[in-house]
Amino acid sequence: MRVGLHALGIGTGADPDVIRQVAQHAESAGFSTLWCGEHVVMVERPDSPYPYADDKKIAVAADADWLDPLMTLSFAAACTSSIRLATGILLLPQHNPLVIAKQAASLDVLARGRFVLGVGIGWSKEEYVALGVSFSDRARRNHEFVEAIRALWRDDVSSYAGDFVAFSEVRSYPKPLHDRQLPIVLGGNSDAALARVADYADGWYGFNLGVADVAERVATLSSLCAERGRDAASVSISVSLRDGSPDDVGALESLPVDEVVVVEAPPEHPDDVAGWIAALAPHWRVG
User: Fold this and answer.
1) H-helix or E-strand containing 143?
2) Would you say 188 and 52 are in contact if contact means Cβ atoms under 8 Å apart?
3) How far is 218 from 123, CA to CA, in rounded Å?
4) Residues of the chain with pLDDT under 50
5) What pLDDT was estimated at residue 184?
6) Coil/strand/helix, residue 26
7) By the 8 A CB rule, do 259 and 32 touch?
8) Whether CATH 3.30.390.10 fits 2-283
């Protein structure tokens, strides 16, 4: 089973020297993927419940540095040569899909085909309000944007007509390196999120789940795929574990899980990163 690392872009992981050291040492140690998430803005007093913690509160301080994930992964791409790079996740409904298609394809070209576009609809209504984007229709917007992005990548001359995005006979270059497509992975742990994965995603990123939760969510995803006449094996699965340990990885090996993602904050000082990775990798049986 592959082991990824979700450590870049936030707090101590927002320092460029730390990013460089984490990316290079993670690649050398054998981690499969570097993941990087997104929030465009944080709010002082959020009312929206955070769905990935029991207390419904995000652990990241509102004043923590939180880098743009595409810029962060572009920097990491320049520091590495083989490790995959993934947004986990980018809040697609908050963006212009034509711009994201361009940025994602550009990153994939610069990374020589190593990029995975992870997207989701988000949970913070306050963030959507601040950006002037409708919160209530974000799921429909996400689906349309994914369809539009795929058309922009696939076709020499692209057209798309939807409720939220429409364009006619445009050209978007460069194209992603592998068959003009990138894997598009969807985040979210709810039934509705898994239904979206079954409907139109190449993969699922489950976040902060217990081992029993992973088994139940994977079974639900498999059933949703079967209802749609889709082979569940066509969906890649990456999960991060809540209070997980290497012993839990063995429990997941009987499930169709492709990657366990370790979520950790890197050291504050770049000189400490090598030792941190050297301890983290064997702990998680990387390599």
Assistant:
1) helix 138-154
2) no
3) 22
4) none
5) 98
6) helix
7) yes
8) no
